[in-house]
Amino acid sequence: MTAIAAEAAAASAHASATVRGKGLPPWLRSIGKNALAVWTAIGYLYLFAPIVVIVMFSFNDLGDAIHPFNYTWKGFTLDNWRDPFKYPDLGHAMLKSLWIALLASFFATIMGTMIAIAQSRYRFRGNGLVDLLLVLPLTTPEICLGSSLLTLFLTLGSPQLGFTTILIAHIMFCVSFVALTVKARIRGFDWTLEDAAMDLGAPPARTFIKVTLPLIMPGILAAFLLSFSLSIDDYIITVFNAGSTITFPIQIFNQQKISVPPQIDVLASMVLFASITLILLGTMSRVVRDRRLATVKP
Amino acid sequence: MADDKAAAGAGPRRGGATPYALLAPGLIWLVIFFMIPIWYLLQTALSVSDTTGNTSFVWKWANFTDSWTNYHDQYIRSFGYALASTLLCIAIGYPLAYFIAFRGGRYKNLLLGLVVVPFFTSYLVRTLAWKTILQDNGPLVRVLRSVHILDANGRLLSTAAGVVGGLTYNFLPFMILPIYVSLEKIDPRLIEAGKDLYSGAFRSFRKIVLPLSIPGVLAGSLLTFIPSAGDFVNSALLGSTNTRMIGNVVQGNFLETLDYPSAAAISFVLMAIILVMVLAYTRILGVEELGAGA
């Protein structure tokens, strides 16, 4: 459906290019047409400028400075990449962030997917209220989410601020993202497939595992990856509920006044390349799956 | 497509208690760790605290008026910066989304993906990279000085321009994606029809495309304004004491001076203002488009 729309849009853009802007001199028309492309190119330049800086400065040769500040280019070296975990604090913080992201996304994906299934599979009273409850955390400033959760923990006196409270906070803001993402992905899912399976004698649990789950899996995976990347990157909510636990973003914020070693850029580039690889793999597997499905469809 | 299937009987059905059982864990989590904390935030905002950070609840409404008298500069600055960065996001994001939606052709998905790729690096590392770009002896400042946009000692770091630039950058995708979604939904036949009725390109943009994309622009504006108004990272890394935003005050009072009541009061006011904006938005346009940012 989107492919058809895209084709139609492209065709109409092509067709209108010949008729459009009657009465304008041709040079003005060509500027008008290219201005959009030029502006778009500038936009992408803006989006990628810091990324280029991060990858480039991960190769910056700062020598043996005790408190390196990776802000000016000194020369090319591979040393930073040879020793990405030179500063143990950074490595530990990264490991902690990975753990939190993994656990938070796991629980948030389960709870969020359940909400998404309930909302798209069933009709029930209070659906609008659920929508509102899901959207509100996304439209509340992070600083308010973080600080209000802190007041809860402070007033109750437990649990002790640290790993657990960070995890609680991350699950909280990821649940909404997961529910909305999965819901968008399974919109239009043919729930009669479940009826078919059950007509053939499959019990509900088996139907879910054998029929429903495999079909909605891409949406669930996308939601998992989204909450993983949100969790691993979060600073504002985390810093309010971290106590003395140090995650990667907290470590960077705390140490940036004292030193900014190139290893920060190395670790950031690693995460970037890993995410891009994951996305490419995901897209490829989807293309392959779609092709396979296309051959069995009637 | 969805409609066809709904017609065939595959749409939402009644399921007794099942939907509520599915909803329960996630919604209970949200109620306990999102809704209830707001109550505790209000309670803290109405408390007094001693020097060690212990608070006692005494209905001290003066905390709210005090927060305005002491920090009105930061309030005004935050909303000013957030407004500026939202407008900049529209200026950069709308044409970009338009290009992807109508000129993207078969590269549409790639172009869309490229919008999000930069955001797979850490927020803080990205902002530190902006510090590299904006620094005083960096190439950007040198060029701007040589063409006299900045004077000889002009700077970008530690200025409002630097902070607004950082905010704009960090929240730009939240503008591009909803606008793209609303542009993508426009039926190309509408534009065709306009053309058949001898409408020029600009006119059909103004009369057809622009009005239909307004919901996306509004959703995007909300999704960029909200995080900008509450942010303190950009101001802390790219700004100075003259660019302190309300987020810096909340963070400082909560985590450094342990003045919980004043910090809670500010945080609560910020949340209330934003909540009013969001509810006004959902009254008019519903919650649908806001999810598009996800």
Give a short account of the largest sheet of chain A.
Answer: none
Task: Kindly name the structural category of chain A.
Answer: mainly alpha
The parts of chain A where pLDDT drops under 50 for at least 5 residues are: 1-21
- Alpha-carbon distance between the termini of chain A? 17 Å
Order of helices and strands of chain A: HHHHEHHHHHHHH
Please give a quick description of this structure.
Chain A is mainly α and 298 residues long.
Structure description:
The complex is a heterodimer of chains A (298) and B (294). Chain A is an all-alpha fold and 298 residues long. Helices cover 75% and strands 1% of the residues of chain A. Chain A has twelve helices and one strand; from the N terminus they run H-H-H-H-E-H-H-H-H-H-H-H-H. Chain A has helices spanning 2-19, 26-57, 79-82, 88-121, 127-138, 142-156, 163-185, 192-199, 204-233, 236-241, 248-255, 263-296, and one strand spanning 122-123. In chain A, helix 4 crosses helix 11 (248-255) and helix 7 crosses helix 9. The two termini of chain A are 17 Å apart. Chain B is mostly helical. Chain B has twelve helices and three strands. Chain B has a two-stranded antiparallel ribbon. In chain B, a hairpin with a 5-residue loop joins strand 2 (47-49) and strand 3. In chain B, helix 3 runs antiparallel to helix 4 (108-116) and helix 8 runs antiparallel to helix 9 (201-230). The longest helix of chain B has 42 residues, at 62-103. The radius of gyration of chain B is 23 Å and the shape is globular. Mean pLDDT of chain B is 88; it is low at 1-9. Classes of the chains: A mainly alpha (298), B mainly alpha (294). At the A-B interface, helix 1, helix 2, helix 4, strand 1 and helix 5 of A face helix 1, strand 1, helix 2, helix 3 and helix 4 of B. Strand 1 of chain A pairs parallel with strand 1 (13-14) of chain B.
